[in-house]
Backbone:
């Protein structure tokens, strides 16, 4: 797609001069969404609409939620959150009896804004019950091709890289990727007894990373992943990065072949993370333990924690075996259309503080 000169990004999206530059991307967004919806329906999925207001927004260490107060008719108040993912609600639907579901869910994440991040965005989330975990990977391959076809694109592009959306994705384990791109043998830093933080710290220092005394194993892992591994993923063809360490897969079940790792994968194209898939954990004792660990870490780092949704844990105990994936829909649209900023593919972006007071005029 040809890019035209854009008004300054700190101008409101509703200025006609800015909207005209975004409109072609937005119309392609609509086409891509319709094509994906048709594909899921053709596969026997039911589209659901999970509520955004939840008791807990999710229990991940580095995700930040929006909170609000619900006032009951009798005047009682309680705190609720806008969900960071529709996962808890969707899994309750699986317990209720749904077997294949998908949702285009608006989700909300605080402290996030940039070319690839926005406070409110659309999560495409889908679940399969009683089906193998690798079925999600096949779904991801199909979705890349569907988006490209709907946009009339021969390739996906971003950050000066391209991906053939019709090619078989590369499949790498996290351990293989750390060895290939960072020269780190990750497996020996993990054991049934725990994580060898010092061994990973030593390997990271050898690569030039500065390691603080309070950096955890997970902190070091994330920094190496972001700096050394992710930029090399999804170049030429998509990459499925599989088998994350269990500590980095809070809602995924352990891999049956090696309990140090989990049935979690991420889909990458052009170095951009697009989707996150799990073989879903249904052990409620283990799930509670993981939630408590992540919330303790959130409290240590950020001074806050979110409640655990007890109804979610109760439903999880009755949920059939399942696998599920979440895909950042706007990111997929960006790659398929060549858009360079997420606000180009969101119909009504959340206005940044710098744009909130711009006078309404017809110009730049």
Residues:
């Amino acid at each position: 797609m040809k890019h035209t000169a854009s008004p300054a990004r700190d101008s409101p999206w509703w200025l006609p001069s800015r909207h005209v530059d975004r409109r072609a991307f937005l119309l392609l967004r609509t086409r891509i969404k319709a094509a994906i919806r048709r594909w899921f329906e053709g596969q026997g999925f039911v589209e659901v609409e999970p509520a955004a207001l939840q008791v807990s927004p999710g229990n991940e260490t580095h995700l930040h939620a929006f909170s609000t107060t619900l006032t009951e008719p009798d005047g009682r108040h309680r705190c609720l959150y806008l969900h960071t993912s529709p996962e808890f609600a969707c899994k309750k639907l699986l317990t209720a009896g749904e077997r294949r579901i998908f949702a285009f869910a608006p989700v909300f994440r605080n402290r996030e804004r940039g070319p690839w991040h926005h406070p409110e965005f659309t999560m495409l989330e889908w679940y399969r019950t009683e089906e193998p975990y690798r079925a999600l990977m096949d779904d991801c391959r199909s979705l890349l091709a569907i988006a490209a076809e709907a946009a009339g694109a021969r390739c996906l592009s971003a950050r000066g890289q391209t991906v053939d959306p019709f090619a078989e994705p590369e499949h790498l384990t996290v351990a293989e990727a750390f060895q290939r791109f960072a020269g780190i043998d990750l497996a020996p830093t993990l054991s049934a007894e725990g994580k060898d933080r010092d061994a990973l710290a030593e390997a990271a220092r050898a690569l030039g990373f500065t390691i603080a005394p309070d950096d955890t194993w997970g902190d070091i892992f994330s920094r190496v992943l972001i700096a050394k591994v992710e930029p090399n993923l999804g170049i030429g063809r998509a990459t499925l990065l599989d088998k994350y360490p269990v500590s980095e897969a809070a809602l995924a079940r352990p891999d049956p072949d090696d309990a140090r790792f989990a049935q979690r994968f991420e889909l990458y194209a052009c170095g951009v993370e697009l989707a996150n898939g799990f073989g879903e954990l249904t052990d409620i004792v283990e799930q509670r333990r993981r939630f408590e660990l992540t919330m303790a870490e959130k409290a240590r780092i950020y001074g806050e924690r979110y409640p655990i949704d007890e109804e979610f844990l109760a439903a999880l105990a009755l949920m059939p075996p399942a696998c599920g994936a979440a895909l950042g829909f706007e990111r997929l649209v960006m790659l398929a259309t060549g858009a360079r900023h997420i606000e180009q593919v969101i119909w009504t972006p959340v206005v940044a503080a710098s744009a909130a007071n711009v006078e309404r005029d017809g110009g730049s």
Summary: The radius of gyration is 21 Å. The chain is about 35% helix and 20% strand.
